[in-house]
Amino acid sequence: MTGQAPLWYVYAVTPAGDPAALPGDLRGVADAPLRTLAQDGLTAVASPVGAADFAEEPLRRHLEDLAWLEATARGHQRVIDALTAAPGCVLPLRLATVCRDEAGVRRLLAGNRDRFLDAIERLDGRAEWGVKVFADAPERTEAAPATGRDYLRQRARRRRTDEEAWQRAEAAAQAVHERLDAVAELSRLHPPQDARLSGESGRNLLNGAYLVPREREEEFCELAGRLAGELGGPRLNLTGPWAPYSFAQVTDLAPGREPERAG
């Protein structure tokens, strides 16, 4: 940051007074120290970052660099995880929300105060849980066809059985969602996750986020465990608790009130 004033990377918004104290050894993106800035009954958790990486033009280039993006996302998530572990409501902001200076962070809070406070009221005492269901392609143990006609019949039969197998797996995933949704307060179905990102084999049939009150988390997790055992072939992955990314609804911040944001 030598030679240029730092920009301010904003991770999350909490009610005024939260978090009471940040872990002393916790660092943010680019190993930056964390600060809290208060305005109008809200607190922003932020850190100073270099303009050489986070000003509008270099940031746009960096967002095409998967290695840089992964490292930044890890730093961002590290802060959110630490905040979520403490009491209080945490509203995570989108990756690379950047303001020009401390005054810009305070304008971000002031310009979106009502939206932030509404979201805090809706989400306080709740956490997000993620559930994914994956299924592998059906296995085949067919003998080699003896004739061309046998080959055509075998191919038609294979197509039919594959379609039926996928339909059963998709129905099972839908049933999982419906049963979990009955316990959760809200749910969101995200697009299927690319296998290159998930690291899982097979097709992603369910990519759900569930907003669960703290007092029902044990019930939700026990139900997810039972459903995983009932699935048979498909696999269920449960993750959480997370900050309520899917339900915060504060990613599109008030236009014209945060001109410093580069992201």
Automatic annotation (TrEMBL):
One of its GO terms (cellular component) is gas vesicle. Belongs to the gas vesicle GvpF/GvpL family. It comes from Streptomyces marincola. It comes from the Bacteria. It is found in: Gas vesicle. Pfam families: GvpL_GvpF. The keyword Phosphoprotein does not apply. This is Gas vesicle protein. InterPro entries: GvpL/GvpF. Keywords: Gas vesicle. Its main location: other. One of its GO terms (biological process) is gas vesicle organization.
